[in-house]
Amino acid sequence: MFTGIVEERGEVVAVADLADAARVTIAGPLVTSDAKRGDSIAVNGVCLTVVDLADGGFTADVMRETLVRSSLAGIAAGDQVNLERAAAVGQRFGGHIVQGHVDGTGALVSREPSEHWDLVTISLPAELARYVVEKGSITVDGVSLTVVAVGPDWFSVSLIPETLRATTLGVRAPGDPVNLEVDVIAKYVERLAAPHLAPRKGTSGE
């Protein structure tokens, strides 16, 4: 589990195509300072398992399902990525519950810079729209953010100077893809409530 508080921007060192998967090597001296094989590290919001460590970097395998669902299918050597180690028990919980399980991708639609923050609008896949609410939480490329406004196929967020400095969202341009993970609590509530909201036998909804 993660919190959506990015610890550092890493750099993709190499990407090896394995036909139905990929093996990526990423430089990240902070997140690998106490890492070991088998640990989880979120890369642009995608939970990956460390399979090797060397020289301040780590290697991880990215399965086909992850490549299909996330923007990691398009990463290349030299790209910067947001990195976060799995949350440790007892630490302050600065963001929200993030699983590292990407639900889909959106694209940056526009950004409106101001003196103290950027207002960024991102496209929203129709199947995820019901989980996104104003003032709710959403993860964009691994960054825990609060939704400012939401429409049928978009939402907007405000990025403070620290987020612009510390994450790749500071350099994303219109058209760039981003990984999205909606609030898992909303999905559980929907699942639990569904049987009670279904039309009952004998009602007009039958």
Provide the fold topology.
Blueprint: E1 8-17, E2 21-27, E3 40-43, E4 46-54, E5 57-63, H1 64-69, E6 80-85, E7 104-113, E8 118-123, E9 137-140, E10 143-150, E11 154-159, H2 161-166, E12 177-182, H3 184-197
Structural notes for this entry:
- The protein contains three helices and twelve strands, in the order βββββαββββββαβα.
- By secondary structure, the chain is mostly beta strands.
- The chain folds into two domains: 8-85, Elongation Factor Tu (Ef-tu), domain 3 (Beta Barrel); 104-192, Elongation Factor Tu (Ef-tu), domain 3.
- A six-stranded antiparallel barrel has the order 1-2-5-4-3-6. It has a six-stranded antiparallel β-barrel with strand order 7-8-11-10-9-12.
- The N and C termini lie far apart (41 Å).
Fraction of residues in β-strands: 35-45%
CATH architecture field of the largest domain: Beta Barrel
- Main beta sheet strand tally, sense and closure: 6 strands, antiparallel, barrel
Number of domains: 2
Round the mean pLDDT to the nearest integer and report it: 93
The helix content, as a percent range, equals 10-25%
Relevant terms:
206 residues; mainly beta; Elongation Factor Tu (Ef-tu), domain 3; six-stranded antiparallel beta barrel; six-stranded antiparallel barrel; globular
